């Protein structure tokens, strides 16, 4: 709940009270949402070229940019992940907008964003436990569209993931459908480091991680 408060930019009780009823109603409507699903595919990390910002895996080259490629240093494998909260958040948000209930629409949209990130957090935690049992560590997770990784690289990432049962697709702009979905990579290896997100050196003002971590 604290993450949601920061995302909504309502850190105090007075601000939260304005949206508390909408949050409660949304949770009731979306209780036991079956569409929340995700997972990962583990592939070999064959080479990391920090000079060019490329990562070579069996299915091709991920042009992540130099920042993310450097975060993968020491990785012998990559977990290519996708996760979605489903269509219901977007559908409910649009319904509120059509009725002129813009605050409710914003709250539902925010809950959807936090939901998919929380779901992916659980998946990453499960992966970390599995790898720790095998004597490996994991990095933080990184997604196309952030940290200078071009959004167009979604096509390469999805091609590398291959067939999956999440229902997530890409449109012509490389945006995921359902909208409340995430994708990306996690490094795996004996010598990788889980670095904190570099919000202090990143210029993006729309990054979900900046909003969750710093509250900006």
Could you name the key traits of this structure?
216 residues; 8 helices; alpha+beta; disordered C terminus; three-stranded antiparallel sheet
Q: Largest sheet, order of strands side by side?
A: 1-5-9-6
Distance between the termini: 17 Å
Largest sheet, strands/sense/barrel: 4 strands, antiparallel
Total beta strands? 9
Shape: elongated
**Count of DSSP-assigned helices:** 8
User: Which H/E pattern describes the elements?
Assistant: HHHEEEEHEHHEHEEEH
pLDDT below 50 for ≥5 consecutive residues: which ranges?
A: 210-216
Q: Please indicate the percent range of residues in DSSP E strands (runs of 2 or more).
A: 15-25%
Mean pLDDT: 86
Helix content range: 25-40%
Rg is 18 Å
Q: What structural class do you assign from the helix and strand content?
A: alpha+beta
Would you give an account of this structure?
By secondary structure, the protein is of the alpha+beta class. It contains eight helices and nine strands. α5 runs antiparallel to α6 (102-133). A four-stranded antiparallel beta sheet has the order 1-5-9-6, with helices on both faces. The protein has a three-stranded antiparallel beta sheet with strand order 2-3-4. Helices cover 39% and strands 21% of the residues. The radius of gyration is 18 Å and the shape is elongated.
